Amino acid sequence: MKDQYDVVIIGGAVIGSAVAYYLAANPDFDGSVLVVERDPTYLKAATSLSSSSIRTQFSNPINVKISQYGSEVIRNFGEMMQVGDDRPDLGFHSGGYLFLASTPEQVQILKENHEAQISCGADVVLWDSAALVNAFPHLNVADIELASYGRSGEGWFNNTGLMYGFKNKARSLGVDYVTDEAVAIGRDGDTVTSVTLKSGAVVKAGTIVNASGPRAALTARMAGLDIPVEPRKRTLFVFDCAHTPEGTAAVNQGRLPLMIDPSGVFCRPEGRFFLTGCPPVEDPAVDWDDFEPRYEEFEEIIWPALAERSPQFEAIKVVNQWAGHYDFNTLDHNLVVGRHPVVRNFLFANGFSGHGLQQGPAAGRGVSELITYGEYRTLDLTEVGYERIVENRPFLEKAVI
């Protein structure tokens, strides 16, 4: 590690490593990059504990386009991230997403979302209950008025594979990584100047990128700034099914999608098991070190909803569970990417609210373009910039899970 870098990135999981990769891979960028990561095991990183899925079924065109680019990167990941003979395989499972609507309000949202998705070229179809049960015969569709199904470009993949792919490639291109923790940020007027590490080292910085996940607000405060991001706990459960419906679908070679029930409970295949979770009834901010699962959610919320949705989900048992953190943007549940409007050399890549893995490639590319060119050159992310935080102007997304 040197004592001065053109760019210092605080946080080395998928977002920070994506920014580092896109900088280092760009021939127009000739600067030095340091990534500071407090826990190189990534055992408690939001990246490692996520459900690692990607979808194009959002309500805002910019979010659709962000995920379309993420899907493109996942498809070409082995070639993009090859280091020597190592071509990382993310094991992408093209299962699609299936949103179910049972109320007039939910139906209207699906229809409006579909218009936005189709306008971006997303491969999404709307089905009535008859078409739905023909595609997925195991489902009880008596209360379902409309369904939205992604036929391609959606699915799930290896979460840590994405992160380590970006990290390993970035390091091979000359990016430095250090195991340490940022404890202070130097600032001279409207310019950040340095990062002080827990080890005592002080690193001068031309630009600082906040890629701190659920700890984003802590990093921002070191620079005298603020961002409305806090850790919110989400518990995931893996269950075994006595009579699995996987393989019974009349579409996609029998494979089941990631289904979002009208109750908010979601469920998808996970090898021979299933992965499931739900929005908590109460959703307070939690301590940054609180990873105790909410065990009661399975018996009280998830199992009743799944058993009602399919007879084949009546006899199931939990075989594993864990809790992770959303880097939850309390303003509007959407990513915040871009420069601070006053402290221009401090950039945000935060607040992904559970979508960091799928949005990481586009966010990393966008931040790298701002640093290299002073503007976006590919996908314009201005709509999700920090200015809306200052103005208290939410950028609403209706399709939040």
TrEMBL record:
Q: Which InterPro entries match?
A: FAD-dep_OxRdtase, FAD/NAD-bd_sf
| Source organism superkingdom | Bacteria
* Keywords on record: Membrane, Oxidoreductase, Plasmid, Transmembrane, Transmembrane helix
Which residue ranges does UniProt annotate as crossing the membrane? 7-24
| Molecular-function GO term, any one | oxidoreductase activity
One Pfam family this chain carries? DAO
* EC number(s) per entry: 1.-.-.-
Give the main EC class: oxidoreductase
Which residue numbers delimit the FAD dependent oxidoreductase domain?
6-370
Please give the name of this protein: FAD-binding oxidoreductase
